Amino acid sequence: KLGIDPETVKAIAEDIKEAAESGVDIAVVVGAGNIIRGESASGEGMDRATADYMGMLGTVINSLALQDALEKIGVQTRVQTAINMAEVAEPFIRRRAMRHMEKGRVVILAAGTGNPYFTTDTAAALRALEIRAQVVLKATNVDGVYSSDPNKDADAVKFDEITFIEAINRNLGVMDLTAFTLCMENNLPIVVFNITRRGNIARAARGEQIGTLVWGNDS
User: In degrees rounded to 5, what are phi and psi of residue 164?
Assistant: First the structure.
């Protein structure tokens, strides 16, 4: 479904508020799949770089919608973008983002990495490393990582935990390979969980057993 669903944004904002109130510092990297996916548009004939820049602008639209929803329920936020647009948001400045988080603000990071050919997953991994995050919480519409597509394979098995190397060897597609490698090489854990279940963002942020934890190595 294309476009912004106000009720969905409101629900996500309320879940982020619950997580923030538990004392966790939060930065959110927003995608734009509800507006445009650069890779998909490129596959239909659009110039890839142009399509990716359009996707980055879509993430800014979504970020402003999330900011509005959060601030309406009393959560202080800052939107920072990888592409300079001073009239709309702050530029991404690593130390400033970290300072906002120290003050209890939710930082919403938009426009990906600011470069075409890099996915939202890669932006999330990169920003997480830059701001010294302890974990990447990958919010999806499935409740974890499975041995195969659970919508197509009735015998698919969900993993509670899996190592980076095993996920690569099994070709599980947790994230795009660039993002996944960034996390693996820097020992940054990933938790994959279902965002559509209310309260899951807070549960994941508090470190509760939820979804699938991807971490460690096989050595």
Answer: -55, -50
